[in-house]
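Recall the central idea of this unit: under ordinary conditions, the amino acid sequence of a chain determines the structure it adopts. In this exercise we apply that idea directly, starting from the sequence alone.
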Amino acid sequence: MAKRKTLKTASELEQYSEEKEAERSVVRKEIELERVRKTSSDWRRIAQATRKELEVAESRLDVLMAGEKSRTPVVFKARKRQKKSQSMPILIASDWHVEEEVGEEAGPGRKYNLSIAEERIYNFGRRSLTLVNASRSHTEIKECILLLMGDHYSGHIHEELLETTELSPTESILWLRERMSGLIRYIQNEGDFEKITIVGKIGNHSRLTLKPRISTAHKHSLEWILYHMLALEFEADPSIDFVIEPTYHTILDVYGFRIRVHHGDWAGRYQGGIGGLAVPLNRTFAQWNADPMLRSDREILGHWHSWNSSTGTSIVNGSLIGPNKFGIKIKVAPEPPMQGFCLISEKHHTETIRAPVFVE
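Accordingly, the structure predicted from this sequence is:
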């Protein structure tokens, strides 16, 4: 057994105490450091596992909720027989990105800002009605469908958009409400329609969440609010009807010809390749058509800023903003700013006219 040291003087006692306290301090620091390391690692591991479980649970819940929602087609029936066959014009508007500025960084001579966006919105309305009136030479047109298919503003879903947008998301909604209201009134006053049906679909840029949602996407979208604001504005007008569904797809039954309308961000993934955008889009559309509730004869979508990617079974809308960095990133051929127009014939039960609407 070790012999304990005998302390004889006060200075020896003080020195001995200081030495022992220094040893204890070192030991305490080592123990505390080890506890912090272990706690930090444990909490990090728990947080990662919880995050994964939450993501899986949200995904499963969204899919289940999406499957439970009924999708009743919006049906458009032919009127009593007229002297001419009847047709339904569809005016296709999407991907305006009104507050996003474009300049030389996207290509020589390219420019886009709020003033240009406003002018192009007016041009879309005016030139769409030119196509409608030209169609009236051979068919009866009393109604029209206006598709507002999302991404009408860019928002702040990417950090760089904070630098390239002229308005905040809420300011963009107020700006858009005034211009969309003006567009609707212009079509109403100048189009000679007895009824206008407006379909509102949200885009991926209007979300308030970091990641896209599935069944609850509309609850986190400022465009969803925008469409309801417009619906309230025209609530007392029986000639204008809004269709604003919480589902991703809206099915339109026009004279028995089924059209599936959506923004387009769910329709495949494309990063270039042989066959172009049509390959992943057609694969997705075929899968959707396997569901009797989603079956369609024609697909109308936006998102891809690529009218030239349209095929016989699908119409891919262009954009109001025209060539920008997004188009360069996804490797689609640059196109001039354009929107879309098509005509559905009651006599032939199909699409008889498909045309771009140039807005510059």
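Residues 10-68 form the longest helix (59 residues).
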